[in-house]
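Batch 3, record 17
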Amino acid sequence: MKIQKPEDLTKVKTHGSQLLVPATVRITVGAATCGCAKGALKVIEALKHELKKQKVKADVVMVGCNGMCFAEPIVEVIKAGKPRITYGHVSVDRVADVVKSVKTGKVIEDLALLRYDEDKPAVCQEPLLYARGKVTAGYAKIKEYKKLDFFNKQLKLVSRNAGTISPERIEEYIARGGYAALAKALSNMTPQDVIDEVKASKLRGRGGAGFPTGIKWEACRTASGERKYVVCNGSEGDPEIAMHRSFLESDPHVVIEGMVLAGFAVGAQEGFIYLNDRYTLAYERVTAAIKQAEQIGLLGERIMGSPFSFTVKVKRGGGAYICGEETALLNALEGSFGEPRPRPPFPVQKGLFGMPTVVNNLETLANIPLIVLHGGKWFAKIGTSSSTGTKIVSLSGSVAQRCWVEIPMGTSVETIVTTFGKTNPKKVKAFQTGGPSGGILPAKALKVKLDYDALAKQGTLLGSGGLLVMDESTDMVDMARFFLDFFAEESCGKCVPCREGVKRLQEIVATFLDGRGTKEHLEVVKRMNEGMRDASFCALGKTAAAPLLSVMQHFPRELEKRMAQN
Amino acid sequence: MSDIKWLPDGQKMFEKLMAAVPEPMREPIRPKLLQMLAGKAAGQPVSGELVKKFVDEDLPEPQRSALMAALGMKPAGAAATPPPAAAAGWEGKAEMMFERMLQEVPDMMREVFRGKLMAIANQKAAGGPIKEEHITAIVKEIVPDPFKTNILKAYATMGDVDISKVEDIIAKHPGGDENLIAILHDVQAQYGYLPREALILISQKKNIFLSKLYRLATTYKAFTLDKPKKNVVTICTGSGCHVCGGSELLKKVEAAVSGDGADVTLEKVRCLGCCDLAPAVMINGQLYSGEEARAKLAEIL
Ligand SMILES: Cc1cc2nc3c(=O)[nH]c(=O)nc-3n(C[C@H](O)[C@H](O)[C@H](O)COP(=O)(O)O)c2cc1C
Ligand code: FES
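Prediction for the assembled complex:
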């Protein structure tokens, strides 16, 4: 069917709800990249086979990732009237047990991680009600998700659907309140109203710089140009993070809806998603999602019968860190080389093909539907006063549980490491936020809160949400070398301070690694940093010295140990 | 050159003629042409008409016809005969080789060359099908350097790749430069790398300098110009994996494949996008970690 007016959404919604809380059985398998890497596809095959063999009817659905990458392959069973059960580490040889449990109604205790009697995300007016009546003894033994720290210390707003809905069924997204924000904007709001809500939300860009999104949009709206564009930055070039990938594999429509709203607000009719070249599965899923949205009339001409039209295209990148920088990204989208452009003119004035363009991080855009639906004021109450909302954080490195989580801004790094990483803070030697350009902080800074300003005060940044943990086995001078190698590979070479500066810093670190460093070397680093910071063309060169400087500041002993003995 | 007296239109016509000569040949051949032209003029001032006459009467084929076409002259007696086709068909890779030879000819003159070269090829085939050796002979006898060397080099590896799919890929992505990266991705997905033949075809069809395509193909890390070996091992040295031993693993595997015999292409990347597997390894498109990765590596090394 085609949605010709906002009310038509209701019909699709009913259908979607029936899929999510079925009258029979729904079995989901986490099949984002993390799940697939651990054999999810084989599990699906085995499930289908086993269901036939044991003569059980069920809707087998591929879903995305709920953040528990460490427990993949994850299989969930939803039987009408019973709690939804999440099983972890389900290997192919346990599939028969799962199917049997569906038949008998007995829970497999050693595989069960948690249960949902109902799934009620913080902002969902219509929770998914699974269990009817009293929860029976077998089920009651399994912990409810609300009682698990892994869930109750998170605030799942942007990621509310990930791992629950099928990324391939738009009905399921709509059943969870999807496209309601778009319906609201198109029927009751002017573009300026949307911008005002975003401004009131105090949402700041999640791509690194933390620029207020509402102000960026307003600048684009008022800029003059024949056409305007919305660009979603899905470059995700920082190593150690993969939320965008996970996101598009789990819930692509939330990004699409955010883009349509951005287009409506700034007066654009075309949007592009610039996607990391390695994300093939995400590319397939988001491409399929766009097609579905077009078929049902949520993208394309005269959306929901309004005068507003918008299209979205996905463009795969070529694989270059610098293409995450917005002007280099625009060059790449135009089929040119990934080198930054001078600013001004800013992209909002002269961006893609010389037209006013809003470039936003993928997570920034995924926040928009909720802001439009629930209001900017509601959003501004979440998090801290200067950093509102939630942040998706990717936890990697030396932790027992590597995962991604969505936490309210202002959550401390320590909470993340202990609650989600299941790691004793005493085992932590250092951590880094913000990707390669972030500072490396010592364990004593673990109490720092994730918030743009609190991290800046510590000399690092929130960046796009990477949190890398290092333990005693990590050599800090080697880490400094590692990041400089990274920048040396990724510098586009356009400007001298960055291209040459990084090389000289590499040489200096090498002298320390050889045990020939001197105090003078460190003075040179400080002076060079000033030059690179002031004279580099883009932020890559401006911040390239950050990891080394933070090692000098927080781990001076490790450098001293490697100075020439005279 | 001083012994030529030019009339204004003569000089102009000569420059027009030179402009039609392929660029790498232009300067080397100028003195020779001037010398021949001086002979033709025999002390008289050179007019535009004389330059045309010179081209028509004194130049060898197929250059004669090509330059006549470029100067807008009707070749005498070339009354709209369609370019001859291979009279008795092709044998082996001969047709592919013929097309490859034509790729070196500037667009403007390609069709004239096609007709002439085809006629020569038919002549050589003497009623039979055109064979590979006929084409090679033509290249050796007629084509000047540097084109000759280029073409012969290309023949050496020709047929290893069948670029017939490239046309479909190009057709799938109409539009301008903004689709180049998508085209390169699709070509790479098809062949596992970017074959030179494919890049040449894209450059011709999209009217883009080959050098630009090479720059795209070499600055972006998603692309490779080398044919991958049987097994492709990608080791993550992103920060998440570096901290968990990714770089050490890379060194180990590097040492293992450096000897001869290992049919392995080793790549390193900065984050495979599944840091929970750290250190993450991709083998022939499939992700592995831990024990499983070690076992799989042992199997192929
Ligand atoms: C070297 C460099 C790399 C960057 N990489 C990314 C990236 O991978 N993803 C991203 O969203 N922003 C990245 N940025 C930030 C973008 O330039 C830009 O600020 C951002 O996309 C704007 O979106 P936002 O306002 O929603 O944050 C990078 C910036 C620099 C200087
Ligand atoms: S850092 Fe290795 S997969 Fe991300």
